[in-house]
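I am writing to request your help with a piece of structural work I have in hand. The matter concerns a single protein, recorded as an amino acid sequence and a row of backbone structure tokens. Could you please explain, in whatever detail you think fit, how the structure tokens follow from the sequence? Thank you for your consideration; the sequence and its tokens are set out here:
>
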Amino acid sequence: MPLNQGWVYRDRITPKTAGQTALDYYTHRYSHSSCEEWRNRFDAGQMRHQGEPIAPDTWLKSGWQLEYHRPPWSEPEVPLTIETLYDDADLLVVAKPAGLPVLPGGGFVQHTLLHQLQQQYPGIAPVHRLGRGTSGVILLARSPQTRAALSAQFRHQQIQKVYRALVGPIEPDMPDTVELAYAIGKCPHLHLGYLYSATPKGQAAWSRATILDRRHDSTLLDVAIRTGRPHQIRIHLAAWGYPLLGDPLYTVGGVANPSNPHATPGDCGYWLHAHRVQFQHPSTGKVIRVEAAAPPCLLRLES
């Protein structure tokens, strides 16, 4: 596969992270690479401050911006078929396939929704995000003004978002609709540094799960969210006691699965689909409702 153009990762040193060597900072903050791997990057001149290579034993000062100049690499293959659902002069709404990241990160730069769409729509930017393994509707703005207007609707909980989700069998006496309000916040994680999880110390979050189909080996849900915390639906359903089928990361309680300690939020395999979104058009005031067709296993059974 062809190589991408490489990428520059930037980190700003805070008073909390100052006073340590550059090698210690990267080794402890980004444990996906070993100390020796980070040292080799310093030796290759890939680690810089103010454009100049720095040594691994450089003592870091608060306010510094460090750069890791990662050389070009071959990105993992991902699905790149992106369906346009709505398009006008102000905004674009598309259906993202599961497996395609929205923004650059990890091993992905060009194989991202943002990069693919910017080839056709320069300057376009997503208004919200979907997890890499989540498929479905995502809104993108063509201008900073449109993005600001739609972001304000999100902040004021004026945008309606409904997802389809597949979990294990739910007890027959469980009500068809359940309100989920587990707080979500950062929790320590051995390999990731931290992970958003269900925690009483977190921020308020609200979801409503509605049972659509009770099957012998699974349950199909509609999940409406009023807040948009990171990984909210995955965490809420797991905290309720019903993790998404195939989720390698979150388990019962809405916390990291101890049997898979190296799982990351970007890992795929779970069944979650952003089914529809409703918002007020920033320019016309018209109510827009857009729906993305769900994959077969997330369709309601015929009665």
User: Anything to note?
Assistant: The mean pLDDT is 96.
